[in-house]
Amino acid sequence: MDNVAFLIFRRMRAPLIVLIIIYSVSVMGLVLIPGQDAEGHLWHMDFFHAFYFFSYTATTIGFGEIPYAFTDAQRAWVTIAIYLTVVGWFYSIGTLIALLQDKTFQHSLAELRFARRIRRMREPFYLVCGYGETGSALVQAITDGNRHAVVIDQRQERVDLLQLENLREYVPALHGDARRPHHLLEAGLKHPLCAAVVALTDVNETNLKIAIAAKLMHPEVKVVCRADSHEVEANMASFGTDFIYDPFDIFGAYLAMAIATPCLTLMRDWLSGLQGEPLHDPHMPPAAGLWILCGYGRFGKAIAANLGARGLDLVLVEAAPELTGKPEGIPLILGWGTEAHTLEQAGVRRAVGLVVGTHNDANNLSIVMTARTLNPNLFIVVRENHKDNEELFRAVGADIVMHPSTIIADRIRVLLVTPLLTEFEQLVRFQDHAWSCELVSRILALVDHQVPDVWEVACDDENAHAICVMTGQGAAITLGALLRDPSDRDQTLPIIPLLLVQGEGRELLPSEDRRIGPGDRLLLCGRPQGRSRLGWSLQNVHSLNYVLTGASSPEGTLWHWLAGRINPAAGQRV
Amino acid sequence: MNPEKVVFGFFIVLALTLNFGFFVGDVDNPEHHHVWELFATLVVNAIATVLKFGDRTQLGAVLLATSLAAMLQLIAAVVVWAVAVHVAATGLTPGVTASIVSLSGGAMIANVISVVLLVIETVMLRR
Fold it and tell me: Which domains does chain A have, with CATH numbers?
């Protein structure tokens, strides 16, 4: 905080000294110059009156010549002194105003306000470093879930943009360099409520530094990093960064999985989508045949590795293999792929799939359009580098558009908002095709063409008061009973339990007769109204008692007493 | 040689010497304590205080604190003087003079501390 006060003091030194000197010289002059009293006797003004006179003259209030009319000598001196003092005041006030408009000053003021706001945070928050495309998508998702985020970005215009954004929660933002630990501390890195640090800048080095700083200064905090190169990933992993996301590897694995198990991919897409959006149709990438790969950069390498592992036939089109390196065992065609003859050479007419992954959006679009005319049945995957071109990529009609920032933002959102869903996704990878297809049809029947609400329930006293109370009284609560409608227990709520965590145990799609107790965690998906109905059973003891036993116990002392008179067994207080 | 340090040291030492000049003499004899000297002490102390603004070191903070203490004492002395001579019109009686001089004596202690700190800082700068 001291920054601001010190800055003011330091800048005000010179004007204040000038004022002191002008005042003292003026007062001294007036005391020295002889004057006359009312009877014309020689009279020397004393310090008290001289100071009084200049106090009102210098501030241009002007009461006149007191206590006696001045002599000409005094008037001559006062004329000089008036100009001196007025200039002195102007100088001081001018300096102060210039200071208030000073960029450095305003920045330290903003920093001060920011740090104070962070210190006063009373709810858990996520520290997001880097407010680019990924950062803004993530912050939007976090605040939509009524959670708090704090943002640091190096560019003032990004921070200004955040303030214009229509977010549900207030997001404090600092214009500062996240590489400097000082700024991270101001943003609440050591704050006990800091739940996670997310490093999303587009520079690997910066993300690495943020991860190191976070692990050193607040070892318990969850650190989530974006990294584009395997070296940096290994470096981050070496000191225990919790989650490292490489958009290209993630997408490569995703595409390989979409080819192998389309149902599983569809289910993951649906569950991790933004709630309320329409459900999209499944991607059905062809699992056999020739795939053409344009561009062998980071994206191309990740795709080649993942598709190669699936045993697909690949042809690579790359204009500068001396820069990107030559792949082992994959035929290489020299060229961009934007011209028809290069694509023909690669065998576009008999190919089943095309992956366009150069770092140039115009080239990517051009390749897709050329390839479509040559072979309209191609399954096309295209990389979108800049969010601004979204409309163009939608219009070009590719089957899958891969946007690195969106992928990262989606993954991190799921990780931060519903960590159990991330765990669920890890577990379902080992399930077979039939299992996931059945779950997909169940979800489809449940939610009517909209992305379902996916949420976690932790059975603790805050989130599931009723369960804790009833278990304490010895009641056995089964999952099936809990998922009945609290307004009519013959109906079941439109909810599918996805995962049950009991201590170390994990159960996918837990069965209805599973007992639920305090400390358990549930991952559920379903319609929003199901979620709000379930809230009653979780928190309200009477509702829970009703769904468990069917008895609607009387509430209030009078009804309780009456019920006890009529039927002693039913009057037992819950 | 840093000219800023020269000015800084000059004002701090001058604040002490002027203060001492006003302070010496019989404590209750107005003849021994001239109003001009009090005026000069006040002005120089004010300048010294402003010069100490905006120093972020621990020593700078203590220097500023001593100056503020001295200013408080001197302003009190000046107010007593003004009230005695102009408001209450009792004039400089021995009792009033004694309280003015003792207040300035307190300011002098603060100024002595200030100078001692300055000397310590200078000695510590030796390489």
Answer: 2-101 (1.10.287.70), 121-245 (3.40.50.720), 254-419 (3.40.50.720), 452-560 (3.30.70.1450)
Q: Which residues contact A256 (CB under 8 A, 6 or more apart)?
A: A306, A307, A309, A310
Using the Cα atoms of residue A259, residue A263, residue A268 and residue A271 in order, give the sign of their dihedral.
positive
Residue A557 CA to chain centroid, in angstroms?
A: 49
**Element counts in chain A: helices (H) and strands (E):** 24, 22
Whether residue B12 lies within 8 A of chain A, CB to CB, comes out as no
What ipTM goes with this model? 0.81
| Cβ pair A440, A267 in contact under 8 A | yes
**CA–CA distance, A420 with A502 (Å, rounded to integer):** 12
Q: Are strands A243-245 and A222-226 parallel, antiparallel or unpaired?
A: parallel
**Which residue has tokens 């019989």?**
B26
- The answer to whether residues A542 and A516 touch, using CB atoms and an 8 Å cutoff, is no
Element (H, E) at A196: strand A194-199
Chain A with chain B: Cβ pairs closer than 8 A: 40
pLDDT tens by residue, A101-111: 888 888 888 88
Q: Inform me whether the C-beta atom of residue A7 falls under 8 Å from chain B C-beta atoms.
A: yes
Of A327, A256, A264, A324, the C-alpha closest to A287 is: A256
Q: Using alpha carbons, list the distances in angstroms from residue A498 to A334, A364, A510, A521, A539.
A: 48, 39, 7, 11, 21
Q: How far apart are CA A372 and CA A396, in angstroms?
A: 9
Whole-prediction pTM: 0.69
B46 at the A interface (CB within 8 A)? yes
Q: Which residue of B has its CA nearest to A19?
A: B47
pLDDT at A569: 57
Put simply, whether B56 touches A (Cβ < 8 Å) is yes
Rounded to the nearest 10°, the torsion over CA B57, B60, B65, B70 is 180
- pLDDT tens readout for residues A72-89: 889 999 999 999 999 999
Q: What angle do CA A45, A48, A54 make, to 5 degrees?
A: 85
Q: For residue A49, which residues of chain B lie inside 8 Å, CB to CB?
A: 86
Q: Using alpha carbons only, what angle is made at residue A289 by residues A285 and A291, rounded to the nearest 5 degrees?
A: 70
Pick from B35, B43, B56: CB nearest A6? B56
